Amino acid sequence: MTARGYILFALMALALAGVGAFQSWQLAITILNMSLISAIMALGVNMQWGYAGLFNVGIMGFTAVGGLAVVLVAQPPVPEAWAAGGMGALLGLLLGVASILAAVVVYQRLPKGRLRGLAVFAVLVVGYFITSAVFGPATQAIEAVNPASEGYLGGLGLPVVLAWPVGALFAAGVAWLVGKVSLGLRSDYLAIATLGISEIVIAVLKFEGWMSRGVNNVTGIDRPVTRPVDLQAAPWVQSLAETLGWGVGQTASVVSGLGYAGLFVLVLGVLIWLSERAWNSPWGRMMRAIRDNEVSARAMGKDVKQRHLAIFVLGSAVCGLAGAMMVSMDGQLTPGSYEPLRFTFLIWVMVIVGGSGNNWGAVLGGFVIWFLWVQVEPAGRWFMELVTSGMADGSDLRAHLLGSASYMRLLTMGVALLLMLRFAPRGLIPER
Question: What pTM was estimated for this model as a whole?
Answer without folding.
Answer: 0.90
